[in-house]
Design goal:
The complex is a heterotetramer, with 2 copies of chain A (331 residues) and 2 copies of chain C (333 residues).
Chain A (H helix, E strand, L loop, with lengths): L2 H38 L14 H9 L6 E3 L5 H7 L3 H8 L34 H14 L5 E6 L6 H12 L4 E7 L2 E2 L2 E2 L10 H4 L4 E6 L3 H16 L5 E6 L19 H10 L2 H11 L5 H24 L15
Parallel strand pairs in A: 1-2, 2-3, 3-7, 6-7
Antiparallel strand pairs in A: 4-5
Helix pairs in contact in A: 1-2, 1-3, 1-10, 1-11, 2-3, 2-8, 4-11, 5-6
Chain C lengths: L8 E4 H15 L3 E5 L15 H5 L4 E3 L4 H13 L3 E6 L9 H14 L9 E6 L14 H5 L5 E3 L4 H13 L4 E6 L6 E4 L12 E4 L4 E5 L2 H15 L4 E5 L2 E3 L3 H11 L2 E8 L4 H12 L9 E5 L8 H4 L6 H11 L4
Parallel strand pairs in C: 2-3, 2-4, 4-5, 5-7, 6-7, 10-11, 10-13, 13-14
Antiparallel strand pairs in C: 1-8, 6-12, 9-11
Helix pairs in contact in C: 1-6, 3-4, 7-11, 8-9
Classes of the chains: A alpha/beta (331), C alpha/beta (333).
The site of one magnesium ion has 6 residues of chain B, from strand 4.
Chain lengths: 331, 331, 333, 333
Amino acid sequence: MSSMEKDKQKEIIDIELYLHMYQQMAKIRLFELEVNELYLSAKMPGLAHLYIGQEAVAVGVCEALTREDYITSTHRGHGHCLAKGAEVDRMFAELLGKEAGYCRGKGGSMHIADPESGNLGANAIVGGSAGIATGAGFAAKRLGNERVAVCFFGEGALGQGLLYEVMNLAQLWRLPVIYVCENNLYNEYTHYTETTAGELSARPQAFGMHTEIVDGQDVRAVYEATKRLVERARRGEGPAFLLCETYRYRGHHVGDIDRSYYRSKEEELDWETHRDPLKNLADWMLAQGLCDQRTLDQIQSDVEAEVKAGVEFALNTPYPDASEVDQHVYA
Amino acid sequence: MSSMEKDKQKEIIDIELYLHMYQQMAKIRLFELEVNELYLSAKMPGLAHLYIGQEAVAVGVCEALTREDYITSTHRGHGHCLAKGAEVDRMFAELLGKEAGYCRGKGGSMHIADPESGNLGANAIVGGSAGIATGAGFAAKRLGNERVAVCFFGEGALGQGLLYEVMNLAQLWRLPVIYVCENNLYNEYTHYTETTAGELSARPQAFGMHTEIVDGQDVRAVYEATKRLVERARRGEGPAFLLCETYRYRGHHVGDIDRSYYRSKEEELDWETHRDPLKNLADWMLAQGLCDQRTLDQIQSDVEAEVKAGVEFALNTPYPDASEVDQHVYA
Amino acid sequence: MSTPDANAREITFSEAINEALAEELRRDERVFIIGEDVAEAGTPFKVLSGLVQEFGPERVIDTPISEAGITGLGVGAAMTGMRPVVDIMFGDFVTLVMDQMVNQAAKVHYMSGGKLHVPIVMRTTMGATRRSAAQHSQSLHALLSHIPGLKVVVPSTPYDAKGLLKTAIRDDNPVAFFEDKMMYRLKGPVPVGEYTIPFGAADIKRSGADITIVATSSMVQVALGAAKLLEEIGISAEVIDPRTTKPLDKQTLIDSAKKTSRAIVVDEGYESYGVTAEIAAIIADGAFYYLDAPVKRMGAMDVPIPFSPALEDLTVPTEQDVVEMAKTLCGVV
Amino acid sequence: MSTPDANAREITFSEAINEALAEELRRDERVFIIGEDVAEAGTPFKVLSGLVQEFGPERVIDTPISEAGITGLGVGAAMTGMRPVVDIMFGDFVTLVMDQMVNQAAKVHYMSGGKLHVPIVMRTTMGATRRSAAQHSQSLHALLSHIPGLKVVVPSTPYDAKGLLKTAIRDDNPVAFFEDKMMYRLKGPVPVGEYTIPFGAADIKRSGADITIVATSSMVQVALGAAKLLEEIGISAEVIDPRTTKPLDKQTLIDSAKKTSRAIVVDEGYESYGVTAEIAAIIADGAFYYLDAPVKRMGAMDVPIPFSPALEDLTVPTEQDVVEMAKTLCGVV
Ligand SMILES: Cc1ncc(C[n+]2csc(CCOP(=O)(O)OP(=O)(O)O)c2C)c(N)n1
Ligand SMILES: Cc1ncc(C[n+]2csc(CCOP(=O)(O)OP(=O)(O)O)c2C)c(N)n1
Ligand SMILES: [Mg+2]
Ligand SMILES: [Mg+2]
């Protein structure tokens, strides 16, 4: 095959990749908007932490993984789960506490787990899954199955001592674990600079861990960085820390409406208008002539249909039977 | 006063300081040797972790503190307690579980506390006192009493997540806390390089904390470094981390006799012969003509008498009354 | 039955907590609040609203997400002259501060032969049915009640919450204070004036003759509701609230059971090895020769708390459950 | 009464643990041991001596002093195909792994709707009178017994220790395994061949007619000693060992109490809100109509464990204490 043909083929692959990442991000965005609707219309029990604004991190990272690779997620985990391969309908079902949900309705928004797509579970304890992800990397290395484990967490999780204990273990034993820190600037209602002494990136570096910082709103950059780190890990070169600069557009959770006391509308608007991951990727693809607007509109309407169908399914599928309450306490 | 007179006076002060530090180190050394005797002769309940070899750290640090300043100590704490001002006799009494002990016999070797000398207590949980020391620094700052808090711990304590949580707090709030890490090369029976990824000194630096490394066998160097850090802290410039390179001559505890499986006799001998804190200070003082051998011999015999009297006292003083068992559970 | 004077105003449980803290912050310079989002945000439950405005960020302190670290700092500050009130957002997170509470705070006074004191208050929450799932719904007060050296408070009304919290802050020992998050909006009479409530004094929330219902925290409301329903069918239930599980007012519980000859213990913690076990064992022993029926326990179901509303509500004792149990014990069908 | 065949050799409790681990490491590639100084040192108690020599440092792994970290790593490894045995040197340190055990390991299976499993074993120690003071002497098995999703094992003999540990390693759920460090040198008959002991099956260590003594771990030896002394004064005591506090074999305990009409529960954990409360409450309820005397509890004194030998020995139930209690219940003076 001539190098020209090679380039051509690579370009095709890339286009498919970019369009797929765009679709994934669009799906997450719409999913979360629908979650907000469900909350506002009192159709969803409890609360949810929306991922809107951070889509490029979950998608960029997960695109660089195989279905067999592991992830652990957080209280803000819908995006991670979808990006790793969860289906919209069963996600909604879980959020509504229905039997058809990924956890039979027992987990809910903060605990979606889907082993089939390598998702070891979202976690409602900040930093709580750092040990689990590190252990998954440990098992992968021992079993020699070439898998890597990605641990998603927010910058606030660096307040938890557990992170330092496991980063030391991972680096000491060269475990295939990638610690993906999503710095969206806030620990709930407090700016991270008020809770962080020194630089976030210095924390993993203190253990001699390979550390990279990436624009979390640029899905291609996140993807490329993750790809490198995954290859390193598979080669046995050990763990890495990927610090993603990002922003959550909405409240800490769906009920966090008035945010003026901890951040400005200007700040929110600035990110939404200048650093939106979907808009940026779309503009770039169009500018590069990699696709036309019709393709993007098609993706949008496909995703809308998928989300609409998914929520319909979830609303009409039954709750688990009462007899389930004491099932699965023990295996 | 002429500058010459000033120098003369300063020299006298220094000589007194050096001799006092020598005496303190000699006292700790003899105290610990006696503790070992008590164990071997089955006169002491339980075990004890000897400080022999590390005397220069406790003495160098505590000489730079006032009696009002705080310290927290560890399972290997006898040296810290004595250096901060505890009396030999009541120390022995505590080790024997007697009522005259600093904790009425309720604490024992790993829990000696003496608020009068600023000692907030030894701790048997590795790293367990890091929060306490940080809180003492917090209180000192809030109460404006100019005190600093010193947290003694071994390099193994850097395995505990708590250390990272509180170092972040101390640096964030510029608390007058000095974290004194005694790297004696071993976590129990494992060399620290087998448990430590990266450099120890990088850990505090990750929080932007002022960090210094000092020869823990050179009491003058430890003293000078601590003095600087204490002044910084009192000036409100915040916490610091002092990494002291040292070595424990004896076993992890008095029962750890055969150590060949984790370290060599050569290594032990090398430290004892070339890096002994007492020998080094003595040689230097003599070489500088700051004192003569008679003075040192005098100190030695004074200390021997003190230790002998102390252990005699402890052996003959009574145990707490049975009625004490449920006293002091609540204030 | 201790209650405020008739002309006391009605405020919520949340407001009662807020008032207690404000009054103690005013009264004693050494008191401060430390926790995650306690200042401007006033906690996610808004319980501390307004405090940072009055007392400033030096006394109402936002922290990193470091439960162990801030609790450890609190222990040290308490040992050296301060009186910290540490805010642990969800009771589920006490798992993160167990070493600081159990091995440090609880033991310092004893280990030091009585020379050191640890006047720290750890405020946290409990209570399910908020659709928060397994890691944000537990009632883990039994874990701390097991530990000598700690005191544990489980208030059930705005009046008790305020009086007990003020006592907790003035106590020279470490105190774990559990607030049921589902009660924050519960209203009740609270006098305007200053008052405190002693620890270890159970409160008879309702006197009765036929059966004793010992209940804690939110379960007191459930017990009172059940008592009303029981009254309609001619069963007079006495509802007793220990208010503190440690110290525990054993005598009042035993005396009531001796009087009624029947007892049920209701608590929202997991039933096995939980608070209901301790209290039931004490009554079964202390009132042995007076009991006409076995002492029954009703705790949360021994399962991780499920998210689905269809399941979660099944895990917590309800008025109807208590009524049924009481009828069985009283031989009414 | 389950015991080995007559011709079984005598080995120590420590050797029994070591054998169980060696056999399981040989049987199943996925099993590994991880903890502080577990390899060359074989733990400070020397319980694991020789294992690293046979299985190598890849399967008997020394770690930093990071209890939470290694337990968390164990949870994740267990979820992804391994069967970790995490060594927590002193039971007092379970305070450091509570979040990983209580909020993670115990809940993963349920929260995932049964899709994920956590076959992890946390081995740790318990037991006082070793002159190790308040932070190295506690028996905190009640804390874990309270948590749904966890299983808790408290073996009392070399035979039980070996059979139960093998069962623990093969169990698909998180198991907390408590070894009384004062029993490591205790000898007992253990068959040469392979065997396991099911969880939730209490063992009648000694049958008797007049009184039931339920005891756990080291307290079983105390109970058996007391039973001998009681026999001399004509009181026939039945000694029952639940062997696992979770699951708990309630029926065997209740049936014994029904038969003898009297019961004492002895456990080395703190008495208040501890294991004795749960078991006493269950017997008092289940055997209510058969009991001639209240069920009595004997746990460790509710105090931080003192260092001084003059005080420490007063905090743990002794043979004499049990004898006195039994005599009182049987009305013998
Ligand atoms: C151990 C623990 N402490 C506190 C909380 C309450 N909480 C939930 S989310 C959150 C903020 C987390 O911030 P970050 O890690 O940056 O994630 P983000 O919400 O920004 O995605 C807090 C404090 C928790 N769930 N777990
Ligand atoms: C949290 C905790 N884990 C484990 C232990 C058991 N232990 C006691 S001392 C020790 C080694 C400590 O090493 P280091 O901190 O370097 O202090 P050193 O003994 O060298 O003075 C260990 C693991 C403990 N006491 N606390
Ligand atoms: Mg954040
Ligand atoms: Mg060391």
